[in-house]
Write a structure and sequence with these properties.
By secondary structure, this protein is an all-alpha fold. It has a domain of 48 residues. Helix content is 74%, strand content 0%. It has 4 helices and no strands.
């Protein structure tokens, strides 16, 4: 699997392919987790996808959060 390139592709992957609704609680939880590089899950994400992609995913979650406001 390759990193997603656009917000729309990312959103489709989360909401349609994985069936996860982008709720405010989910978005806030993921933002908190992705920001904490001490967490094993975040370190693993960086190992697999790279830190630049982590930063991109954070930006996409922030966009989703703005859309939910």
């Amino acid at each position: 699997m390759r990193p997603l390139d656009t917000y729309d592709d990312w959103k489709q992957c989360i909401t349609v392919d994985c069936g996860i609704p982008l709720t405010k609680a989910f978005v806030q939880r993921r933002l908190k987790e992705l920001a904490d590089t001490r967490l094993h899950t975040t370190r693993r994400f960086v190992e697999v996808w790279g830190d630049a992609h982590r930063q991109q995913v954070i930006a996409w979650f922030q966009r989703a959060e703005r859309e939910l406001a």
